[in-house]
Amino acid sequence: MLKLYKYQSDYLRYLPKNFLFDCDTGVGKTVMGFAHYRIHGENKPLCIVAPASKLKDGGWQRMADIMCPNKDILFISYHLLKKYADELDGYFLIFDECHNIKNSTGVWGKSAWQICKKAFGFILLSATPVPNGWEDAINYFKIFGKVANKTRFIQQFAITQRPYGYMEIIGWRNSKVLKETWNSISKRLNKEDCLELPPVTFKYIHFKASQDYKKIFSTRVLGDKVFDNSMLLRHGLRQNCATKDKLEYLHDLVNSTKQNIVIFYSYESELYQLYSLLSNKIIFECNGKNKHFPTDNFSEVKNSVTLANYKSGSEGVEFTYADIIVYFSPSESYTEYYQSLGRCHRNGQTKKVTVYKFITKLTIEQNIYQALDNKEDFNFSLWEAKYEKRNRK
Fold first, then answer.
1. Which of 140, 2, 1, 24 is nearest to 11 (CA)?
2. Cα–Cα distance between 333 and 331 in angstroms, integer?
3. In the chain, what is the straight-line distance between the N-terminal and C-terminal CA atoms, in Å?
4. CA distance 118 to 167
5. Are the beta carbons of 324 and 356 closer than 8 angstroms?
6. How large is the angle between the packed helices 230-238 and 211-219, nearest 10 degrees?
7. How does pLDDT run across 337-352, given as a tens digit for each residue?
8. What is the model's pTM?
């Protein structure tokens, strides 16, 4: 079994059996999870619940062979959680990336709540358990028996209004009680407090909105394409912010250095455009179709560009060979955005990391980054309602 770092042992000391590990990417949540299980439930059957992409990668299985050799462990993805809901009585459960069950009314959230009621014990692991604030904590409070249901939670703690015909939470009351309740089930571990990591520098590269963006925004039409519903409008705006100018800037950047670069993108169309820039570069990919990137001998990787979409590039991978990150376009998920940075700036990184954020001013893209900077997911429905109301005036 691996020997824990002192900060890991200190974190685990005195924790109750059931707990939420609110720990940064790169501090070793997987190792700590197994160590906690060995302390509290080693003689009980163990089930690991994780995103399908992480189980497919095999990281949990490899660590299980080290931390719990010869143990028969059940590994299931969140997609199978409901199917196994009645078969896990008496198990000790580890929920990796537990933000997947934060929705108290969703299938995964309900199934997790039902399973935990009958479990011998459980722990929840995430670097971003509550990316949108206290509303995301409701199901955790249910699972730990701190609140009966979502309605009671809203009544007790939320300040609400209905400006657009649906309830909007605009603030919270009884904040002291909320914080005390959260601290009774969870503990934060920041990587800056336990790892000696090189610094991170952010560079904000601003662009002007393209004429295509302005036309879609004002007319909902571009050429023969009509953006006549919210989904089409949302993606049409996002893909036409300033792509040409971004590609020109990126071309100069990638050809001015032999440092290893990771480029995070959102759309498959962007992937094809990015490929056109990368002559004379070693190209790696991390997306739903391909996962091809270095897993060892990082010091030997030179002059490379890794193209990673947010979903695949924010879970269960390491890009510590890279010291330049480019956010070509933003994710709307704070969890994906936050964890993508942690894939490069984590234990094992030895070089200063420079982050380039491409931001198109006075567009939906700028609003997305504002939400992410506030540690929130971007809400397109709310953004659309505000702009529709402004346009009517």
1. 24
2. 5
3. 66
4. 34
5. yes
6. 160
7. 998 988 888 888 888 9
8. 0.79
Query: Span 200-392: which CATH code?
Result: 3.40.50.300
The residues facing 74 across adjacent strands are: 47
Closest listed residue to residue 11, CA positions, set 21, 1, 3, 2:
21
Q: Tell me, rounded to whole angstroms, the distance of Cα 280 from its chain centroid.
A: 32
CA gap 5, 11 in Å, rounded: 10
Domains 6-191 and 200-392 share a fold: yes
Radius of gyration of the chain (CA): 22
CA–CA distance, 50 with 76 (Å, rounded to integer): 7
105-122 tens-digit pLDDT: 999 999 999 999 999 999
The widest CA-to-CA distance across the chain, in whole angstroms, is 68
Nearest-angstrom CA–CA distance, 19 and 140: 10
pLDDT, position 392: 47
Torsion of Cα atoms, 69 then 72 then 75 then 76, to 10°: -170
Tens digits of residue pLDDT in 41-91: 989 999 999 998 788 878 899 899 999 998 999 999 999 999 999 999 999
Q: Where are the domains of the chain?
A: 6-191, 200-392
Residue 169 neighbours by CB under 8 Å, 6+ apart: 135, 154, 158, 159, 160
3-state secondary structure of 334: helix
Pairing of strands 291-292, 121-126: unpaired
Bridge partners, 305 (sequence order): 261, 283
Q: What topology does CATH give the domain 6-191? A: Rossmann fold (3.40.50)
